[in-house]
Amino acid sequence: MLPVECTGTSKIESDGLKEQPTPQTYKGTRSYVCSGGDLLAPTAVESVVEGTANSSCTKLSATTRETLTWPDGTTSEIEIPIEVAIEPGAVDVRVTGTVVKGKYAGGGVTSTIPMPRCGPPARVEGPAAMTITPAAPVA
Questions:
Q1: Of the chain's two ends, which shows fewer C-beta atoms within 10 Å, N or C?
Q2: pLDDT score of 113
Q3: CA-based diameter of the chain, in Å?
């Protein structure tokens, strides 16, 4: 099956990044338009994002869970472990994960998301993109 390509926007409430690693939680939503794979036409997909982190202004260290809800009511639960150095001036970050449950379970995920800023709590908004590569069928 061909990959599913999604583009859209992300709105995440963040505790903000500090100079030293700080435990925190975050949550928000993403809105995508997805196509490819087994989708017959471009499809609007909503997701809920939540996670925990121990990040700083120089390093993202987090576990993100994103649950996509497809128009037919099925869901895909995605887990993305993040361990990434923050480059000065970066506006987004590319991460990889796995569909752990639901539609496309076992598939790989590559996601590009807005980079949180160093500073006080804030809403992190910006473009988001995701590619889901479905797992090969078991023979």
A1: C
A2: 87
A3: 51
What is the secondary structure of the chain as a DSSP string?
Answer: -PPEEEEEEEEEEE--B-SS-EEEEEEEEEEEEEEETT-SS-EEEEEEEEEEEEE-SSEEEEEEEEEEE-TTS-EEEEEEEEEEEPPTT--EEEEEEEEEEETTTT-EEEEEEEPPPBSS-EEEEEEEEEEEEPPPPP-
What pLDDT does residue 51 have? 93
pTM here? 0.89
% of residues, the chain, pLDDT over 90: 64
Q: What is the pLDDT of residues 54-97, one digit of tens each?
A: 999 899 899 999 999 999 999 999 999 999 888 887 888 899 99
Both tokens assigned to 107: 């598939």
Is the predicted pLDDT of residue 137 greater than 80, yes or no? Answer: no
Kindly report the backbone phi and psi dihedral angles of residue 100, in degrees, each rounded to the nearest multiple of 5, phi listed first: -95, -15
